[in-house]
Automatic annotation (TrEMBL):
<dbReference type="InterPro" id="IPR015168">
    <property type="entry name" value="SsuA/THI5"/>
</dbReference>
<protein>
    <recommendedName>
        <fullName>SsuA/THI5-like domain-containing protein</fullName>
    </recommendedName>
</protein>
<dbReference type="Pfam" id="PF09084">
    <property type="entry name" value="NMT1"/>
</dbReference>
<feature type="domain" description="SsuA/THI5-like">
    <location>
        <begin position="72"/>
        <end position="154"/>
    </location>
</feature>
Length: 350
C-alpha cells in the first residue's frame, strides 16, 4: 500500500528532459502537492552531501532525470535504485580539432594527442567517461582503438557539486562554480598542446562555432544507435527503491508529470525551445543546432527496446574501462510498473 510522502527531492541535468519541463511548468509540484507531498530541488540545497546525491543517489525519496553515467555508477556501487523511464534524445557528440591540424577524419587521429578531463576528486568522472566513449566509437568506425591515440589528461580539482545552483532573474542554473574550471582540455586544444578533444550538446555546438573548430566526426548523428549511445543516449529517469516500495503513488505521479510535459512539448515547438534553452543554460539557436529542429518531438520517455540495448552496451563499456566496479543487467534494473499503471489508467479513462 502506498504511503503519504512528506517531501520529494528532485534533480535533473542541464539537458533536455521531460522532468525539467515539468518542473518549469509547475506540473511536478502540482501533481505531488495533490498527494500532500512537497518538492525540493536537490541541486539548490546548501548541503553538499545532498547536492552530491545528484551523482551518487544516496538521498532517500528522490528522483533524477539526466545523464546515465552517475545513475549506472550508483547502481553498480550498490545503491538501491530503479529506472522507471528512458528518454533517448540524440545530440551532437563532436570530436573537434583546430582547422590546421591536418585531421580530416577519425583515421587521422592515429598517433595524435587527445585531451581528456580528469576529475580526480569526483566520485564518478562522467565527463571523462563520455569523452572516451565518443573517441572509442569514432575510432572503431575506422578500425582503430583508443590505444592508437596518445591520451593527455587535464587534471581538475574539486567535484561537480562544490557549490549550490544559483538563481538569476528567477531562473535556476545547474550548479555554481566548479573548482578547477570547466574546459581545461579546450584551452589545451587552443594552445596547441593536444590535437583533438570531445565535447557534446549545446555548449559543444556553440564552442565549435565560436572558435572556428573543425568537426572530425559527430558520433551523435551516426545511423547506428550503439555508436550514438553515450551518457545522454539514453537518459535515465531513476528513483530510489524506498520510494517505490513505500510511496508508489509518488513514483507514478512523477512519471505522469513527465509524460504530460512531453505531450505538451510535441504541440508547442517554439515554447519548448525556450524552455530547453533555460534547461541547457544556452540559447534557442544552439539548442536547435545541438538537438535538432524537431527537439520538441524527441522528448519521449518510455522503455523502448533500443534504449534498453543502448544502455546495456554503455554499461558494459563503463565496466570495461573501470568507471564502474561491475556490470549488471539493465533489464533487471528497470521497474516497468509505474509506466504500466499510467497506461492502464489512460486505457480505463478512454
Amino acid at each position: 500500500m502506498s504511503q503519504a510522502l512528506d517531501t520529494l527531492w528532485y534533480t535533473r541535468c542541464p539537458v533536455p528532459t521531460g522532468l525539467g519541463i515539468a518542473v518549469q511548468k509547475g506540473w511536478l509540484e502540482q501533481t505531488l502537492n495533490a498527494q500532500g507531498t512537497a518538492i525540493k530541488s536537490l541541486r539548490e540545497s546548501e548541503n553538499q552531501a545532498v547536492r552530491e546525491s545528484h551523482f551518487d543517489h544516496t538521498l532517500q525519496n528522490s528522483v533524477r532525470h539526466g545523464g546515465n553515467i552517475p545513475a549506472i555508477w550508483a547502481r553498480a556501487s550498490g545503491r538501491e535504485t530503479r529506472v522507471i523511464g528512458l528518454s533517448w534524445q540524440d545530440e551532437v557528440q563532436l570530436i573537434l580539432t583546430l582547422p590546421g591540424s591536418g585531421i580530416k577524419t577519425a583515421k587521422d587521429l592515429k598517433g595524435r594527442k587527445f585531451g581528456l578531463p580528469l576529475w580526480a576528486s569526483a566520485q564518478i568522472d562522467f565527463s571523462r567517461a563520455q569523452a572516451i566513449r565518443g573517441l572509442e566509437n569514432a575510432l572503431k568506425l575506422k578500425g582503430l582503438q583508443v590505444s592508437d591515440v596518445e591520451l593527455v589528461d587535464y587534471l581538475r580539482g574539486g567535484t561537480h557539486s562544490d557549490e549550490a545552483a544559483q538563481t538569476v532573474a528567477g531562473i535556476s542554473t545547474f550548479g555554481g562554480r566548479r573548482n578547477g574550471g570547466q574546459s581545461a582540455e579546450l584551452v589545451g586544444l587552443l594552445r596547441g598542446e593536444v590535437d583533438a578533444i570531445f565535447l557534446k550538446g549545446a555548449s559543444a555546438a556553440h564552442v565549435a562555432h565560436q572558435f572556428g573548430l573543425h568537426t572530425v566526426i559527430d558520433t551523435g548523428s551516426h545511423p547506428e544507435p550503439l555508436i550514438r549511445a553515450n551518457n545522454g543516449t539514453p537518459r535515465t529517469l531513476s528513483v530510489d527503491q524506498h520510494l517505490l516500495d513505500h510511496h508508489y503513488d509518488a513514483a507514478v505521479g512523477i512519471l505522469d508529470s513527465v509524460l504530460r510535459a512531453e505531450t505538451w512539448a510535441w504541440n508547442n515547438p517554439e515554447d519548448t525551445r525556450r524552455y530547453l534553452a533555460r534547461e541547457t543554460n544556452s540559447s534557442e539557436f544552439w539548442v536547435t543546432a545541438a538537438y535538432g529542429e524537431d527537439a520538441h518531438q524527441r522528448l519521449r520517455t518510455n522503455l523502448h527496446e533500443n534504449s534498453i540495448l543502448g544502455l546495456q552496451d554503455f554499461t558494459d563499456f563503463l565496466q570495461r574501462w573501470n568507471f564502474i566496479p561491475q556490470s549488471f543487467s539493465v533489464r533487471d534494473w528497470i521497474d516497468p510498473r509505474p509506466l504500466e499503471s499510467l497506461r492502464s489508467a489512460t486505457a480505463l479513462a478512454g
